[in-house]
Amino acid sequence: MKSLLPALALASAFIAGDAAAQATTYTFLGQPYDTVKNSNRCTVGECAIYSKAMRPKISLTFSAPLPANLMPGDHRWRVIGFSVDDGIRSASSYTRTAALQTVNVATNGAGVPVEYDIQVQRLPGPPYLDGKPGGPDSRFSYVYATDFAMQALTNGACMRWAGNASQPQYCAEGIGDEGVSSASVAGSPTVTRAAAIASIPTLSEWALIVFGMILTGSAAVYVQRQRTE
Protein backbone atom coordinates (compact mmCIF):
# COMPACT_ATOMS: atom_id res chain seq x y z
CA MET A 1 0.00 0.00 0.00
CA LYS A 2 2.92 2.30 0.73
CA SER A 3 4.07 2.02 -2.88
CA LEU A 4 0.55 2.83 -4.02
CA LEU A 5 0.40 6.13 -2.15
CA PRO A 6 2.69 8.11 -4.49
CA ALA A 7 0.82 6.75 -7.49
CA LEU A 8 -2.53 7.80 -6.03
CA ALA A 9 -1.18 11.25 -5.22
CA LEU A 10 0.14 11.56 -8.75
CA ALA A 11 -3.20 10.43 -10.20
CA SER A 12 -5.04 12.99 -8.09
CA ALA A 13 -2.73 15.77 -9.25
CA PHE A 14 -3.12 14.64 -12.84
CA ILE A 15 -6.92 14.71 -12.58
CA ALA A 16 -6.87 18.18 -11.03
CA GLY A 17 -4.44 19.42 -13.65
CA ASP A 18 -6.55 17.99 -16.46
CA ALA A 19 -9.60 19.87 -15.16
CA ALA A 20 -7.74 23.16 -15.60
CA ALA A 21 -6.14 22.75 -19.02
CA GLN A 22 -3.34 24.98 -20.20
CA ALA A 23 -5.58 27.38 -22.03
CA THR A 24 -3.69 30.25 -23.66
CA THR A 25 -4.96 33.66 -24.75
CA TYR A 26 -3.55 35.48 -27.77
CA THR A 27 -4.32 39.17 -28.03
CA PHE A 28 -4.10 41.08 -31.30
CA LEU A 29 -3.91 44.81 -30.59
CA GLY A 30 -3.89 47.31 -33.43
CA GLN A 31 -2.31 50.72 -33.44
CA PRO A 32 -4.63 53.77 -33.26
CA TYR A 33 -6.80 54.07 -36.35
CA ASP A 34 -5.28 56.03 -39.21
CA THR A 35 -8.40 56.03 -41.43
CA VAL A 36 -11.89 56.82 -40.14
CA LYS A 37 -15.19 56.97 -42.07
CA ASN A 38 -18.18 57.86 -39.94
CA SER A 39 -21.79 57.82 -41.09
CA ASN A 40 -23.93 60.91 -40.60
CA ARG A 41 -27.07 59.13 -41.81
CA CYS A 42 -27.36 56.28 -39.33
CA THR A 43 -31.03 55.66 -38.46
CA VAL A 44 -31.22 51.97 -37.47
CA GLY A 45 -29.07 49.59 -35.45
CA GLU A 46 -26.13 50.85 -33.41
CA CYS A 47 -24.56 54.01 -34.75
CA ALA A 48 -20.86 54.64 -34.16
CA ILE A 49 -18.47 57.56 -34.31
CA TYR A 50 -14.86 56.42 -34.47
CA SER A 51 -11.85 58.62 -33.74
CA LYS A 52 -8.15 58.27 -34.46
CA ALA A 53 -7.50 57.99 -30.74
CA MET A 54 -9.19 54.58 -30.67
CA ARG A 55 -7.64 51.22 -31.45
CA PRO A 56 -9.06 47.75 -32.20
CA LYS A 57 -8.43 44.57 -30.21
CA ILE A 58 -9.22 40.87 -30.56
CA SER A 59 -8.49 38.24 -27.91
CA LEU A 60 -8.73 34.51 -28.63
CA THR A 61 -8.40 31.87 -25.93
CA PHE A 62 -7.28 28.52 -27.28
CA SER A 63 -7.64 25.26 -25.36
CA ALA A 64 -3.85 24.86 -25.50
CA PRO A 65 -0.90 26.90 -26.79
CA LEU A 66 -0.74 26.94 -30.57
CA PRO A 67 1.78 24.41 -31.84
CA ALA A 68 4.92 25.46 -33.65
CA ASN A 69 4.84 25.63 -37.45
CA LEU A 70 1.06 25.42 -37.54
CA MET A 71 -0.16 25.42 -41.13
CA PRO A 72 -2.79 27.97 -42.24
CA GLY A 73 -6.32 26.69 -41.92
CA ASP A 74 -9.63 27.07 -40.11
CA HIS A 75 -8.72 26.77 -36.43
CA ARG A 76 -12.01 27.91 -34.89
CA TRP A 77 -12.35 24.48 -33.27
CA ARG A 78 -9.34 25.27 -31.07
CA VAL A 79 -10.95 28.43 -29.62
CA ILE A 80 -12.76 28.14 -26.28
CA GLY A 81 -13.33 31.84 -25.64
CA PHE A 82 -12.91 35.20 -27.30
CA SER A 83 -13.62 38.92 -27.06
CA VAL A 84 -13.64 41.90 -29.37
CA ASP A 85 -13.31 45.67 -28.82
CA ASP A 86 -13.46 48.29 -31.58
CA GLY A 87 -12.76 51.23 -29.26
CA ILE A 88 -16.45 52.02 -28.80
CA ARG A 89 -18.09 48.78 -27.73
CA SER A 90 -16.90 45.38 -26.63
CA ALA A 91 -18.42 41.91 -26.54
CA SER A 92 -17.37 38.41 -25.57
CA SER A 93 -18.37 34.83 -26.19
CA TYR A 94 -19.33 34.44 -22.55
CA THR A 95 -22.30 36.76 -22.99
CA ARG A 96 -23.15 35.28 -26.42
CA THR A 97 -23.05 38.71 -28.05
CA ALA A 98 -20.13 37.83 -30.28
CA ALA A 99 -19.35 35.17 -32.86
CA LEU A 100 -16.34 33.88 -34.74
CA GLN A 101 -16.50 34.06 -38.50
CA THR A 102 -12.87 33.36 -39.39
CA VAL A 103 -9.86 32.08 -37.46
CA ASN A 104 -7.13 31.28 -39.96
CA VAL A 105 -3.78 31.21 -38.17
CA ALA A 106 -0.27 30.03 -39.00
CA THR A 107 2.63 30.05 -36.53
CA ASN A 108 6.41 30.14 -36.71
CA GLY A 109 8.85 27.74 -35.06
CA ALA A 110 8.18 29.31 -31.66
CA GLY A 111 4.40 28.92 -31.91
CA VAL A 112 3.85 32.67 -32.45
CA PRO A 113 1.12 33.67 -34.94
CA VAL A 114 2.83 35.21 -37.97
CA GLU A 115 0.11 34.82 -40.60
CA TYR A 116 -3.52 35.24 -39.67
CA ASP A 117 -6.93 36.17 -40.96
CA ILE A 118 -9.35 36.66 -38.06
CA GLN A 119 -12.81 38.16 -37.93
CA VAL A 120 -14.77 38.40 -34.69
CA GLN A 121 -18.27 39.77 -34.93
CA ARG A 122 -20.39 41.61 -32.43
CA LEU A 123 -24.13 41.03 -32.78
CA PRO A 124 -25.98 44.18 -31.76
CA GLY A 125 -29.33 43.13 -33.21
CA PRO A 126 -31.24 39.87 -32.90
CA PRO A 127 -29.58 37.30 -35.18
CA TYR A 128 -32.08 36.02 -37.72
CA LEU A 129 -32.27 32.56 -39.21
CA ASP A 130 -31.27 31.97 -42.82
CA GLY A 131 -34.05 33.08 -45.13
CA LYS A 132 -35.05 36.00 -42.93
CA PRO A 133 -32.40 38.63 -43.66
CA GLY A 134 -32.56 42.31 -44.39
CA GLY A 135 -34.72 43.43 -41.47
CA PRO A 136 -33.93 46.75 -39.81
CA ASP A 137 -32.47 44.94 -36.79
CA SER A 138 -30.52 42.42 -38.84
CA ARG A 139 -27.23 44.18 -38.17
CA PHE A 140 -23.71 43.11 -37.31
CA SER A 141 -20.36 44.67 -36.49
CA TYR A 142 -16.87 43.24 -36.63
CA VAL A 143 -13.19 43.66 -35.98
CA TYR A 144 -10.98 42.11 -38.62
CA ALA A 145 -7.28 41.37 -38.08
CA THR A 146 -4.61 40.31 -40.53
CA ASP A 147 -0.86 40.25 -40.09
CA PHE A 148 -0.63 43.57 -41.97
CA ALA A 149 -3.72 45.59 -40.89
CA MET A 150 -6.82 45.77 -38.70
CA GLN A 151 -10.28 47.10 -39.50
CA ALA A 152 -13.48 47.73 -37.57
CA LEU A 153 -16.97 48.13 -39.00
CA THR A 154 -20.16 48.95 -37.15
CA ASN A 155 -23.77 48.49 -38.17
CA GLY A 156 -23.46 46.51 -41.38
CA ALA A 157 -26.61 44.97 -42.85
CA CYS A 158 -26.59 41.18 -42.75
CA MET A 159 -28.03 39.42 -45.77
CA ARG A 160 -27.33 35.84 -44.68
CA TRP A 161 -26.87 34.37 -41.23
CA ALA A 162 -25.02 31.10 -40.62
CA GLY A 163 -24.34 28.92 -37.62
CA ASN A 164 -25.97 26.14 -35.67
CA ALA A 165 -27.16 25.18 -32.22
CA SER A 166 -23.62 24.64 -30.92
CA GLN A 167 -22.25 27.94 -32.22
CA PRO A 168 -23.74 31.45 -32.04
CA GLN A 169 -24.94 32.66 -35.39
CA TYR A 170 -22.70 34.92 -37.40
CA CYS A 171 -23.23 36.98 -40.50
CA ALA A 172 -21.92 35.02 -43.45
CA GLU A 173 -22.81 37.68 -46.00
CA GLY A 174 -23.14 41.38 -45.22
CA ILE A 175 -23.30 44.67 -47.06
CA GLY A 176 -22.67 48.26 -46.12
CA ASP A 177 -25.32 50.94 -46.26
CA GLU A 178 -25.61 54.58 -45.33
CA GLY A 179 -25.65 53.73 -41.62
CA VAL A 180 -22.22 52.07 -41.58
CA SER A 181 -19.16 53.54 -39.87
CA SER A 182 -15.70 52.05 -40.24
CA ALA A 183 -12.12 52.59 -39.19
CA SER A 184 -8.84 50.91 -40.10
CA VAL A 185 -5.14 50.98 -39.41
CA ALA A 186 -2.28 49.71 -41.55
CA GLY A 187 0.57 47.78 -40.01
CA SER A 188 0.98 44.56 -38.08
CA PRO A 189 -0.93 44.30 -34.81
CA THR A 190 0.97 43.63 -31.60
CA VAL A 191 0.49 39.97 -30.67
CA THR A 192 0.86 38.91 -27.04
CA ARG A 193 0.44 35.48 -25.50
CA ALA A 194 -0.48 34.67 -21.92
CA ALA A 195 -1.79 31.71 -19.97
CA ALA A 196 -5.51 32.12 -19.50
CA ILE A 197 -7.11 32.10 -16.07
CA ALA A 198 -8.17 28.53 -15.36
CA SER A 199 -11.88 28.01 -15.84
CA ILE A 200 -14.07 26.75 -13.01
CA PRO A 201 -14.26 22.95 -13.22
CA THR A 202 -17.55 21.40 -14.25
CA LEU A 203 -19.48 19.12 -11.89
CA SER A 204 -18.00 16.02 -13.53
CA GLU A 205 -14.49 17.45 -13.23
CA TRP A 206 -15.10 18.30 -9.57
CA ALA A 207 -16.27 14.71 -9.04
CA LEU A 208 -12.99 13.39 -10.47
CA ILE A 209 -10.96 15.80 -8.37
CA VAL A 210 -12.81 14.90 -5.15
CA PHE A 211 -12.54 11.19 -5.96
CA GLY A 212 -8.79 11.48 -6.41
CA MET A 213 -8.46 13.39 -3.14
CA ILE A 214 -10.51 10.75 -1.29
CA LEU A 215 -8.32 7.98 -2.67
CA THR A 216 -5.18 9.82 -1.62
CA GLY A 217 -6.57 10.62 1.83
CA SER A 218 -7.73 7.05 2.41
CA ALA A 219 -4.35 5.70 1.44
CA ALA A 220 -2.63 8.11 3.83
CA VAL A 221 -4.89 7.07 6.72
CA TYR A 222 -4.25 3.41 5.97
CA VAL A 223 -0.48 3.89 5.95
CA GLN A 224 -0.64 5.84 9.23
CA ARG A 225 -2.63 3.05 10.91
CA GLN A 226 -0.17 0.46 9.68
CA ARG A 227 2.65 2.43 11.25
CA THR A 228 0.91 2.79 14.61
CA GLU A 229 0.11 -0.91 14.72
TrEMBL record:
InterPro entries: IPTL_CTERM (IPR026442). Residues 198-225 form the IPTL-CTERM protein sorting domain. Keywords: Membrane, Signal, Transmembrane, Transmembrane helix. The chain crosses the membrane at residues 206-223. It comes from the Bacteria. Residues 1-21 form the signal peptide. This is IPTL-CTERM protein sorting domain-containing protein. It comes from Brevundimonas variabilis.
